[in-house]
Design a protein that fits this description.
By secondary structure, the chain is an alpha+beta fold. Helix content is 34%, strand content 23%. 28% of the residues are buried.
Amino acid sequence: MSLSATKRSSVIVAIVAALALLFSTMFGLNAEAAQTKGDKVVSYAQTLKGSKFKWGGTTPKGFDASGYTQYVYSKSVKVKLPRTSADQYKVGKSVKLADLKPGDLVFYKTNGKTVSFVGIYVGKQQFIGATSNGVRLQSMNDSYWKTKYVGAKSIVK
């Protein structure tokens, strides 16, 4: 019993695909290699979801907004950020709202006067940050955040 040319082609394609997958994992050529530094920041940031809020907090035992971003950047991509939200706003490259990428920092004036809150953009108009309710995902389109938005900065590529 012989296979038709179409079936032989399909079998060969399946074997080649299986071998490519096998060799790509053997030589470390996987999707992780394509992960950007911004993606690493976001991945690490999400592991801390649910951490408690603590005024002045800089560890997983309790974070304030800038303590959280400072900790995440330090642990995920070895980048040292300044301690306060206002000082973090002074570093990096400004990014337009339409050009945000995962890992960018987003800044807000929650006190009505100066930059007083920072979060990490995760994509789809959402950021993760240490709010008074702890580390959680927030929608940038929420009326509270939308009216207090100041700008964004790119820290890593």
